[in-house]
Design a protein that fits this description.
The protein is of the alpha+beta class. It contains eleven helices and ten strands. Among the domains are: 170 residues, PAS domain (Beta-Lactamase), CATH 3.30.450.20; 128 residues, 2-Layer Sandwich (Heat Shock Protein 90), CATH 3.30.565. A five-stranded antiparallel β-sheet has the order 2-1-5-4-3, sandwiched between helices. A five-stranded mixed β-sheet has the order 6-7-8-10-9.
Length: 439
């Protein structure tokens, strides 16, 4: 039972489709995340490879060929270094090589037009020359020093310190094609993305049959629970009928005769001549007891009707509801019935409608503090029962005692029968109980 209109239970196929869609979305998000992480990792690895290549060029090729004549700008020293590094730079895919001194002057470059020129040193150049670490960054081709590299497209530049035979520290700067550096990135993505996607798809494929079995198990459990609730209500109905029969044939019959006997005793005592004061007291007490027994018999008969209304089986649902409304009015709640003139549902449906109306009106009398209640039955694409009161209302679920256990049981029975039972309420807004039974 809910505080909204109930929806039909989704089929296993629909639940599995939603489950698969959610998992596919999760797989896509995981795949995108893994591709992004692989992209970052591959880029970092590519930069590391460029730094390693520069470190090897510096240690094995450039540094052994440095001498003091290069510091003085000797053309022969520049030409000698050219001869040493030319083939190595080509093999290492180096686009440009520069060697700077501490005065921001280019001592050597494979581009002869740069040799001897001075350019403002960048932040990475200064830091590398000071602390000696190897650093890499994307080249800013707008800098004046990169005027001859602009035709090569996006580049990566790597800085590394080298030293002459006298120990003077110089700055080696090597340029690499960005596409060459990031080719490893694409290779890593091509290798790992399919593996990641395949693993996620296998995981999804394994989850679907497990989810199917789980849903089936839940459905079986729900069916057994609903059947158990239906059997409990049937047993309750049989027990109500038995109790009502026992009351009628036993204690009610016995008590019904008691007021007659007691009344005759009162009459005889009242006509006794020369009664004493004690006799008058006895007459009064016996008269009160007679009234009390009559009242008890009336209460028992009312209880019998509430336990098992004979009108429902004998006169039909309309008569049973009218009798129920009369009993509720007798307890101080004005009750109006709005019933179709030809109301004649099957016995099972009539029993469900009456039980819901009875339970709802009992809750109105006991809890709602209502002045009015309206019971409406409509027959439009199935029977619908609505019980509305103008009582204090409550917050569904907030006060377990207010939400009748009987109605919760009936909600399970209604569901087992293909019907739906809804409860809508709110503080100060009264309460509405709706039962919908499809054709």
């Amino acid at each position: 039972m809910t505080d909204q209109h109930s929806r039909p239970s989704p089929t296993v196929r629909r639940v599995l489709a939603r489950f698969a869609a959610a998992n596919v979305l999760a797989c896509v998000l995981l795949l995108v995340g893994s591709v992004w992480a692989s992209h970052v990792a591959a880029r970092n690895q590519a930069m590391a490879d460029a730094r390693t290549t520069t470190d090897l060029i510096a240690a094995l090729v450039v540094q052994p060929a440095l001498d003091e004549e290069l510091l003085a700008g000797d053309p022969d020293a520049v030409a000698q270094l050219d001869a040493v590094v030319e083939s190595e730079l080509r093999d290492a895919a180096v686009v440009r090589l520069k060697i700077w001194d501490a005065d921001e002057r280019i001592l050597y470059s494979d581009e002869a037009r740069l040799v001897g020129r001075t350019f403002p040193a960048g932040e990475y150049q200064v830091e590398t020359l000071e602390d000696g670490h190897v650093s890499a960054e994307i080249t800013d081709l707008a800098d004046d020093e990169n005027v001859y590299e602009r035709s090569n497209g996006q580049l990566v530049e790597v800085y590394r310190t080298v030293a002459t035979t006298s120990g003077e520290r110089l700055l080696l700067e090597a340029y690499f094609q960005y596409d060459e550096v990031t080719s490893r990135q694409s290779s890593i993505l091509l290798h790992f993305a399919p593996i990641t996607a395949a693993a996620l798809l296998v995981l999804l494929a394994l989850q679907v049959p497990l989810a199917h079995r789980m849903i089936r198990a839940i459905r079986v459990g729900d069916t057994e629970r609903l059947q158990s609730s239906a059997r409990a209500v049937e047993a309750s109905t049989r027990e109500r009928r038995r109790i009502a029969a026992d009351l009628h044939d036993g204690v009610v019959q016995d008590l019904s005769a008691a007021p007659l006997i007691m009344s005759r005793a009162v009459d005889r005592l009242a006509t006794v001549p020369d009664r004493s004061a004690d006799d008058d007291t006895l007459v009064a007490d016996l008269s009160a007891a007679t009234t009390a027994v009559r009242s008890s018999v009336t209460s028992l008969r009312t209880l019998m009707i509430e336990i098992y209304p004979p009108q429902l089986a004998e006169a039909g649902l309309s008569a049973a509801l009218q009798d129920l409304a009369a009993r509720v009015e007798a307890r101080g709640v004005r009750t109006r019935l709005e019933l179709p003139p030809d109301l004649d549902p099957p016995p099972g449906t009539a029993g469900l409608l009456f039980r819901v109306a009875q339970e709802s009106l009992q809750n109105v009398v006991k809890h709602a503090r209502a002045r009015n209640a309206v019971v409406t039955v409509t027959d439009d694409d199935g029977l619908a029962l609505e019980v509305v009161d103008d009582g204090i209302g409550f917050e569904p679920g907030a006060e377990p005692g207010r939400s009748s256990f009987g109605l919760r049981v009936l909600a399970d029975v209604a569901e087992a029968a293909g019907a739906t039972l809804d409860l809508t309420s709110g503080p100060g807004r009264g309460t509405t109980v709706r039962l919908r039974v499809p054709r």
